[in-house]
Amino acid sequence: MGGKMKAVFKHNRAYGAVLAEVDIPTINDNEVLVRVKATSICGTDVHIYKWDEWAASRINPPYVFGHEFSGEVVKVGSRVTNVQIGDSVSAETHIVCGQCIQCLTGQHHICQKTAIIGVDRPGCFAEYVAVPAQNIWKNPVGLSHDVASIQEPLGNAVHTVLTENVTGKSIIIIGCGPIGLMAVGVAKAAGAAMVVAMDVNEYRLQLAMKMGATVAVNPLKEDPIQKALHLTSGNGMDVVCEMSGNAIAVNQGFKMVTNGGRIAILSLPTAPISIDITNDIVFKGVTVQGITGRKMFSTWQQVSSLLTGNQLNVQELITHRLPLEQFQKGFELMIAGKCGKVVLVP
Fold it and tell me: Known catalytic residue: 163?
């Protein structure tokens, strides 16, 4: 195809990024080229933008970042048979090897050699992005590009909440960033009897209530452990979804889970956390599961079904829609916690 495109470019190993003109990606025989219609900012992108310790240890600028998107296929490789020009698509951002024991046994989401779009290879904060055809997800007919662009993070929320059945159970979402807010909506749609949202950010707690939370808890204003016990007649929460990464909040989650309950951890704490394994896991018979990515592609099917079946309304979650040129404003909103999901439009 050739030519140039505008893109958000991580230009050096420091805070921030720039809007730049770069080459439109070329594709190989097994890839497709997508014209990006909408792309949303993820917490991982914020790590890269802020250039924290994780980013410094993983990212190699200069490159185009971003990994959540929706768009239209404009070119396909010679060996591609599953996608056609004109298809509305998004993409599973984890590129897996297909050969390790996890891939061979159907656990592609925990592939030992995973590479990530927008982290390990050029991403989608741009007018075009190149994607392996095997990673393409065809969007449901009629789904808007704004909503379609957040299916990837929504998959994280679905995977976290629905690893086991939550129907009729009490569940607390610790950390109401965008994926935490999605988790609130997913839990409500899945029939949880009680959905508790916990965060120190009042703006996001209000969004959590709009997404279907039964109760909002600010741990700076009340003891969240005592609150959880009170709400469950002293039994504790059936399910705890940890999405904050805060050491204090993580420990509070282990204290408030019921005996035999489940804790799903999606957050990425920046430093090791001390946990009372004896009393908070072993003696309580608690199941603890780390969550990475989405199951390929069963979680994507769940996401599409929830959206097309009108069981999950994410419109309240998309609080800002900005042109790509205003990406800095989008990142400032994310860093300040004054937004839900921010969508950028090239």
Answer: no
